[in-house]
Write a structure and sequence with these properties.
By secondary structure, the protein is of the alpha/beta class. It folds into four domains: about 10-135, Rossmann fold; about 155-270, 2-Layer Sandwich (Beta-Lactamase); about 270-445, Reverse transcriptase/Diguanylate cyclase domain (Alpha-Beta Plaits); about 455-675, EAL domain (TIM Barrel, Alpha-Beta Barrel), CATH 3.20.20.450. Helix 4 (about 95-100) links the parallel strand 4 (about 85-90) and strand 5 (about 105-110). Helix 2 (about 40-50) runs parallel beside helix 3 (about 70-75) and helix 16 (about 505-525) packs parallel to helix 17.
Amino acid sequence: MAKQDNALRLMVVDDSVEDAEGIVSGLRNAGIAVRPLRPASLDDLDAMLAGQTIDLVLAAQRPGLLPLADVAQKVLASGKDIPLLAVVDTIDEAGYLDALALGVRRVVPRHKPPVLLSLVRSEWTDLEARRSMRRLEARIRETERRCDALIESSREPIAYIHEGMHIRANAAYLEMFGHETFEDIEGMSLLDMVAPQHVEDFKQLLKGLSKGDAPPPHYQLQARDIEGNAFAATMEFTPAQYEGEACLQVIFRRAEVDPELARQVEELRQRDQVTGLLNRPTFLRLLEDAVSASAADNRQHGLLLIEPDHYQRLLQEIGLDSADAMLAALAERLVGVLDDGAVAARYAEHRLAVLLRDTDYAGTVAQAERILAAFARDMLQIGSHSSVVSTSVGGVQVGEKIASVSQVLARADAGVTSALGVGGNRYEIFDPAATDRAEEEHIQAWVDRLRDALDRDSFVLHYQPVISLQGDTGAVYEALLRLDAGDGELVKPLTFLHIAEEHGLLWEIDHHVVGQAIARIGERMRAGRPTTLLVKVSQASLHDDSLVRYIGEQLAKHQVPGEYLVLELPEAKVFTHLKATRDFAEAIGRYDCRLALEHFGVGLDSFQLLSHLQPHLLKLDRSFCEELPQLPDNQKQVHDIAARARELGIRTIADAVQDAASMSILFSAGIDYVQGSFLAEPAAQMHYDFE
């Protein structure tokens, strides 16, 4: 679907604030970051459509202040590509047809959240695809204009050939053959530029190219100019398009150097000097050709990226001066197990790549298994050192469904990263035809790893200072969860929390984190440095009293007053678990622990929650501080939230503060605390000087 680090800019048109908030909360609970809007009148609707970017409109079909017909007319009149979805209480044939007649793209059942979620994701993905297509088309047009200008000014003799005839040639090409203007050769056969003794062979070459055969890297022959004078030349062919027509780009070069020397120079230019494999630019050109072939002819190829596990630890063992030797040894071992026709390259600093031409998914997997086995089985000789070096392999099956170089590389890179993240010595191959199976295997690996982390205490906490703008010098930190992957690598929770939630592990992680936090508060108190910790907990801990009882036990064990522990819950989760949150707040209040709401202020009516719940702290959603000095609307919202919170006796925290100008704005707005990497990065130790 659309990129998850982007927020869905959603307009919900519904007379019922509760129903609208329910839709937004449901999407957020499914992991979609939502920036909602809700017009109260047609004038509001006009202003919102004209004033900002909107991704989707969800409009209630039932009668109200904003009828669906009026909303559809306004969306259409905006001239923007904004999908309109009608939200209905029940689906009947007449209502369905009426909605489609208005230009509605989908009819969404209100009371079936999984269906609503699926349709919203589908429409958002389609919208992003259309936007990407428009951006690509604009870039292609611009690139074509630039390429045309570059070709015309190039000193290389370049021509474009369609069905053997010249359709474009630059000045250097015309000069080489003695012509003054392109009109002299327009429509002329390329064969007329070839000496008679080479015509037959050259005809066969052109026939092969017209059938889709791969062009040779270089083709040497005798060419002839307008006067009939022959000269030795080398030709290079590249498939291209000119004014929408498939054609060949041809470069003629006079053969003024020793052909063997030229071949050796070209070979060196394409090779990495450390490994002897192809270098990255050469490999990427081959990959582009393979991807293009997949798109055009539905051919299948495999791409593998290979990276040694625990690379930093290996460097410490063998020394930085042996890094090149290790890479050369890795390359030699890799080449020894490759299938015939496979092409290997050095893709990055310590990452190798393999292109498997005309290989199906089973063949790609088999090659990945042989690579893993070859490295894990035998010692690798690295200069004077020897060591078993296991590898992680990420791959992708290139086919018609994923015929884009950027997508192919991204999928393969994600596979390597994921394989390394769950311990290494494994492969992850993305197959567009079997994504469900691959996803299940990936998720199960993460579930096993999370269970192992809980058993082995591999979850650690980092601490980021929360700094007062109002003169309070008490030490306050937020505890941030990390998964220790070994070798100094720390995995952030966004990578795995959704998997933990789906498999019922959140409550165990909550216990683990809270226990660590209370123990750390106790250590600080015994050292004479009392510290307040903000600790995130999940909605999974709201529906029974096990976490509350555990908190009581740990506070007593470590002799920690409860006022130093602040438990954070996201606003969106609280809205959908309001009664359970109230009960939870009351229960932890018996130990003097505090409650904070995070990601506050992005709901349709965030302060409605505060009529049912009285938290100790409100942490504003980090989006408020993104480019805060340049966004007057955000400044006003921050000021309003701070003022209303002050009236209720609730303190506020601004998260993700990015610069000094934002600090000044937040101070003027009356925000109590600030937090962000601009002030201090999260760290394993608490060393910030609050004085």
